[in-house]
Amino acid sequence: MSIAQEPTTILVTGATSGIGKAIALGFAKNNLSIAINGFGKDEEIASVLAELKANGAKEAIHIPSDMSVTADIERLIKTTQEKLGSLDVLINNAGIQYTANVEDFPAEKWDQIISINLSSAFHTTRLALPLMKERNFGRIINIASVHGLVASVQKAAYVAAKHGIIGLTKVVALECAQQNITANSVCPGWVLTPLVEAQVDAIAAKDGISHDQAVEKLLSEKQPSLRFVALDELAALCLFLASSSAASITGASMPIDGGWTAR
Ligand code: NAD
Questions:
Q1: Which regions of the chain are under pLDDT 70?
Q2: Which domains does the chain have, with CATH numbers?
Q3: 158 flagged as catalytic
Q4: Ligand 1 in contact with 18 (CB < 6 A)?
Q5: At what angle do helices 231-242 and 18-28 cross, to 10 degrees?
Q6: How far, in Å, is the centroid of ligand 1 from the Cα of 190?
């Protein structure tokens, strides 16, 4: 899919791995200038930037920043604007997971998840909106989760943060409805990334079963398609939401979950 004339610059948070990296690659193929952040060894980050360039990115830069630190986020947006010249598409993707029953949930893990998975999107959005309004164009895509729509046990902070980001998205959509700036939430089911590999490993260890059996168990409990959502499917959805064809889609929460939330 081509995304016509509008967006030329994009920031994807948490794009050194998994879903964020796949989304950045999707936009690279459409020749955008791309800023990313996310953790990783120097050589891993260099390899992601090289892959973005090899796939067509006009520019690809990494801006070191911890999404739990407000001053870092302020520097992230400022540097993106300075280095790329504008910020047309903002993808709030960085996120972490931690599982425990509510009464055992460490308070510091709660704070960390709310800060990285929810508050960071508030900060990037409040700082990006003036830049988007200047150009009368913007696309904000928040990578929420099925857990923004429904709950699962042992994920109190994650489910609260993801429900919260869907609420934030709707407010931004309303406030920007007449300014050619859209805000939408993407709600993936299970996608095989390091974040989910850790959960597969935990099932395998707890139940004394193989990796493949643990994958089967994980999928069969929630995802009727019985297969992981593919990374390029997520990239394609984000490309569509950034395109001119999606100009009237705003405030939406879009499941991409193999039927998880249809049950
Ligand atoms: P991942 O662990 O592969 O990638 C997470 C990325 O976020 C990495 O680049 C990491 O460096 C970055 N990150 C983490 N903490 C950060 C911080 N404090 N500051 C800056 N960067 C930070 O995970 P993923 O599965 O690709 O998840 C990406 C997003 O998709 C998350 O918001 C997650 O909640 C969401 N999601 C994932 C799934 C899934 O099944 N994998 C399903 C639904 C939603």
A1: 1-5
A2: 9-189+230-256 (3.40.50.720), 191-228 (no CATH)
A3: yes
A4: yes
A5: 50
A6: 12
